[in-house]
Amino acid sequence: MKILVVGAGAVGGYFGARLAQAGRDVTFLVRPARAEQLQKDGLRILSPHGDATLKPKTITTSEITTPYDLIFLSVKAQALDQAIKDLTPAVGPDTMIYPVLNGMRHMETLSQVFGEQKVLGGVCMVSTELDDQNRIVQMTPMQKLIYGERNGEGERSGEITPRIRALDEALRDASFDTELSTTITQAMWHKWVMIASLGLVTCLLGGPIGEVNSVPDGEQTALQAVDECTAIGKACGFPYPPPLHEWLRKQATTKDSKLTSSLYRDLQKGAPIEVDTILGDLLDQGHAHHLETPLLQACCVRLRVYQNNLKLS
């Protein structure tokens, strides 16, 4: 299976590198400057599962001449429109597009451009970031990809379609965990609610989970934040099962936890943030169901003010 990784950053770079190490046919779609940097320094990973440096195959948009079997799409929401333009020449009649972006809004965008049938459902569970030397640093041992057919024959019937079986075979046994899901939309919603909850707690309250819970009323406020987000998921038809709900509440209230969120880390760096796709879109879903979510609303306002000021600077 010919795999094209779009987004050779912290997430796409990590999983693409692990797949390449496992002998898969992986090519990274990059800009010319990034291609030059990768050939000079290599794609470098610092990980609890073993460090690695490799010289990956790269290609630019103008060099694409044939379609790929699988496009692994891993970009920030603000880069999606440009990524779509860049990857379009790589899409053929049988190409599968496997996006692992945050939230759900990108699914509609991709389906409108490429059609529902081409776009798989996907969840990525990993905590990585690029350091000041462009190395991919994995911060926790967790590393998992979940994938499946969505809103079609596979998800409705629980059937494992031939193409998703082929995808599963291509991704398995590559030094990270995988799961072929017949309820992928639910899995995507569960991840969305999780990252929104942790993003809400850390960004609105201004610190890692442990710091929030070390002050009076911190735990109560964190739990309210989690409950607001999970209530929206439930109203939309994707409730958190009780054990998972309790796990999320524990994640948000551990007093010695250094856990943050990608939203919080980007905020601390002064970088653009995915406020609309992670929190804003969830807030809209809550409004559509007439739910009161004051903490989520306050955080969206705060982060949108930050984002607007960033554009002006």
From TrEMBL:
Keywords, sorted A to Z: NADP, Oxidoreductase, Pantothenate biosynthesis
EC number(s) from the headed UniProt entry: 1.1.1.169
Top-tier EC class: oxidoreductase
Domain Ketopantoate reductase C-terminal, chain residue ranges per copy: 184-306
Domain Ketopantoate reductase N-terminal as annotated: residue spans: 3-151
Biological pathway: Cofactor biosynthesis; (R)-pantothenate biosynthesis; (R)-pantoate from 3-methyl-2-oxobutanoate: step 2/2
Family: Belongs to the ketopantoate reductase family.
Listed name of the protein: 2-dehydropantoate 2-reductase
Source species of the chain: Tunturiibacter lichenicola
